[in-house]
């Protein structure tokens, strides 16, 4: 406990007796920094569990740690990270992970792994003038934001019944499970160092037993690099309305504008937490191993621990604060657990207060240190953008088989896949605009990053493609049995050696139904029941084949390339088409793209399809299509709306999206099959920001009439 000499600021009556001119008044200094995140892990970095826990905190691993498949997927993930993400100069495993934790979890806006060590990291410094902060007065708190559904209804290689992570589940609920399994996720150690000197000319020494307060203070208005980008006026207005819920007195609350506890956030909720889950409380007041006490089994270099933080004695005098005492090194610490909501902002002041001094941190004599503004951003990563580059002519055998469906020549086939325009001029595949897709996700405080730093299509190498394709055949072979048929997918699909050729154009080149029947023997039970007159497939068969193609063949191909979803980021697979039957018009539905459980999606069709987005053409350009499919990967379901006579999207969930007004206005979501500027609606945006949107305003509430959209 501090001695009476600590009566630094003129004390009030109770301590008056200690004020004595014969006792020199010590002066203090305080500095605030981000502590060592690596110390919080219960396992060393070179162990299986230690490595995957760290990868997850870095936003590079997306299986819950106690998931049955976590260890195996993490092994593949780490191989990828080591070969594609770790900068060349980085040494040992532990060094990279520790350095990345120091540099990336709290750091400046543009902080790619590729330039680790050369960007600003840690707590941002306070602005001299809070009304006019500069870039250096901000930092992002970078939390993982690439949580995807993992359970497939068809290929159950990632299933663990303890984790209901299927499409249709809720992102907020799903995310909570990741936090429950990984005790370091979402925790930031803050350390205040206090020095003392007894008089002029004396040296500064660490001050033990000093009471330090950690208090939230009003953040600065965001600078553009830390703020979200805008969507449409209507969407922005709906978001602003949700952000403003329960704001009574704007200036009184340092969390004004942050996600309210009603929507899963921390505004309006108790500040101190005696639990461990970062969903509750901002500052931990129970011990954290590796910070307040040793780990049971992992020895650390550190031998001095931070006394655990406590609630303040008088919350009216010291609102929004907890307090902790300094240790023998003059350091006080607290575990800060910001909300997981993108866009939530925090600023922290550490000051010396009672009983050490009577300061409330705001008075002129206060000994204090402040941070700049910390803003939560959610990191979403794309690991692969693979492309099957189509040749300008098609395998002659496939053309011959396509003849019976009226696609007799190269040109007809290529026209159908939109690789040519109506004048039969070659168009090829469309491009995704990197800047635009980054901007669309930045609307939701999602920081989109790409392995290698660029979004450049990588042509799938033949060997890897053949192996993923073999996976598609194997999965479809099991799928045929699961569907109760005797179909032979290896006879329906072309062999891998032919599929890898550019002339096979689509990702899954298939024989026509008649050619398939000829191969398996038209009289066998493996045959397709073709109508002898029309050549049509019966409806039940058509539906079963849709499942076989989408959920087994395509999902199989995708998991071959995304390594069963082990990769840190999503895998985008682009091609002229998913399968030959898209061209032959034999499918129940032909989609522009498809998302699957293996952390990836396909993006189909040539440039011509996306040439003139609008109510008469397709809904968006390829960038919009990629946003839609990535949205699915991140748990977003279809939205209502359509461009008649075309039908709206199947399985649209009205309650999951902003309402559409009768006049056709409202916030049209990119998750709808309807032309729009290609933004997520406000409800999707808030969900991607991590909000518990189940608790947001009911969607029947139509937003106010607004001037016409300018997009
Ligand atoms: Zn869709
Ligand atoms: Zn939506």
**Structural class, from helix and strand content?**
alpha/beta
Mean pLDDT: 91
Tally of helical segments:
16
Q: What kind of sheet is the major sheet?
A: 13 strands, mixed
Radius of gyration: 29 Å
Which molecules are bound in this entry?
A: zinc ion
Fraction in beta strands = 15-25%
Shape: elongated
Distance between the termini: 63 Å
Helix content: 10-25%
Number of separate strands: 21
Task: List low-pLDDT spans.
Answer: 1-23, 700-711
Written overview of the protein:
The structure is a single chain. The protein has a domain at 25-378. The longest helix is centred in the last third of the chain and has 23 residues, at 539-561. With 711 residues, the chain is α/β, with parallel strands linked by helices. Mean pLDDT is 91; it is low at 1-23 and 700-711. Helix content is 23%, strand content 15%. The N and C termini lie far apart (63 Å). The protein contains 16 helices and 21 strands. The strands form 4 sheets. Strands 2, 3, 6, 9, 10, 12, 13, 14, 15, 16, 17, 18 and 19 form a 13-stranded mixed beta sheet that branches. Strands 1, 4, 5 and 11 form a 4-stranded antiparallel beta sheet that branches. Bound molecules: zinc ion (2 copies). One zinc ion binds at residues 639, 657, 669, 671, 680-681, 683-684.
